[in-house]
Amino acid sequence: MGELANCPECGTLFVKGAQTVCRDCYLEEEDKFQRVYEFLRKKKNRTATLNEVSEKTEVEEKLILKFMKQKRIHASSFPNLMYDCERCGNKIYEGKLCKNCIGEIQQDLDTEDQGQTIAEKEKSDTTGAYINVNKENRWSR
């Protein structure tokens, strides 16, 4: 079951579940999504930029970006609908990170993984040898 939360848009108390906003704001968002979708369906509008879509539909850029990140609008189908990578700011069509940032993060993870593997190998190579002293205080192995 969901938890009680205040709607980030209007401040109304609602039960937070699958939706991140209250029912009224959700319905308003859906109406705005339909406006954006209908605008982009027209062939002449498919090359519009994010700013142009926002101006023509009177929908905030932030909300259009939300639709794109939720993959409700597939930016790869619209060549000029791009947004910033969350790490470096390069323009991207989908996801949160550009290919360069994904590659760098993967390389860092691989390097870290190799470092851990080497440390584990060194740790396992050192055997637990001990020296025993018998009753006559003589060293024995």
SSE layout and pairings?
Elements: E1 3-6, E2 13-16, H1 23-41, H2 50-57, H3 61-69, E3 83-84, E4 91-92, H4 99-125, E5 132-133, E6 139-140
Antiparallel strand pairs: 1-2, 3-4, 5-6
Helix pairs in contact: 1-2
Protein name: Flagellar protein
InterPro entries: Flagellar_operon_YvyF (IPR022258)
Number of helices: 4
Tally of strands: 6
Regions with little confidence, pLDDT below 50 for 5+ residues: none
Mean pLDDT: 86
Output the helix-strand order. Answer: EEHHHEEHEE
Shape: elongated
* Assembly context of the chains: single chain
Strand percent estimate: 5-15%
Q: Helix content range of the residues, please?
A: 40-55%
Structural class: alpha+beta
Cα(first) to Cα(last) distance is 64 Å
Strands in their spatial order, largest beta sheet = 1-2
State the major sheet. 2 strands, antiparallel
Computed over alpha carbons, the radius of gyration is 28 Å
Protein name: Flagellar protein
Organism: Halalkalibacillus sediminis
InterPro entries: Flagellar_operon_YvyF
Explain what you see.
This is Flagellar protein. It comes from Halalkalibacillus sediminis. By secondary structure, this protein is an alpha+beta fold. Among the domains are: 1-6 and 20-77, no CATH class; 82-115, no CATH class. It has helices at residues 23-41, 50-57, 61-69, 99-125; strands at 3-6, 13-16, 83-84, 91-92, 132-133, 139-140. Strands 1-2 form a two-stranded antiparallel ribbon. Strands 3-4 form a two-stranded antiparallel ribbon. The radius of gyration is 28 Å and the shape is elongated. The mean pLDDT is 86.
